[in-house]
What we know:
Layout: H1 2-6, H2 8-20, H3 26-40, H4 53-72, H5 75-81, H6 86-99, H7 105-112
Helix pairs in contact: 2-5, 3-4, 4-6, 4-7
Amino acid sequence: MRTLLQALPTIIRAVVGLAADPSLPRATKIALAAAALYLASPIDLIPDFIPFLGYVDDLLVAALLLDGILTFVDRSLVLRYWPGNPESLDKVARVAHLLVAWVPRRAKERIFSSHKRAV
């Protein structure tokens, strides 16, 4: 978790750059906007005034967003906006993936994939 917190300024810069990129899939832009709204909202699943636990839900949302972006968005596009080196991106990716390993890949695909499913 410390790795994600230390990388937070870098992550924010990368996400802002990605959100403005016209080649970023629409589904990912929607996921970025939804995560930003949740993280900025004073209403959380676990209230922030509860020590430590209050920030766990925010951390998990951020980790899910990162893992989804790093799994479903072209790496070269992410690296274009990542202000650090590729090794630091890999380190953050590993931590985010570990934190959200309990989320089924199929759910991540539904959130981040720009491909429409047949009904």
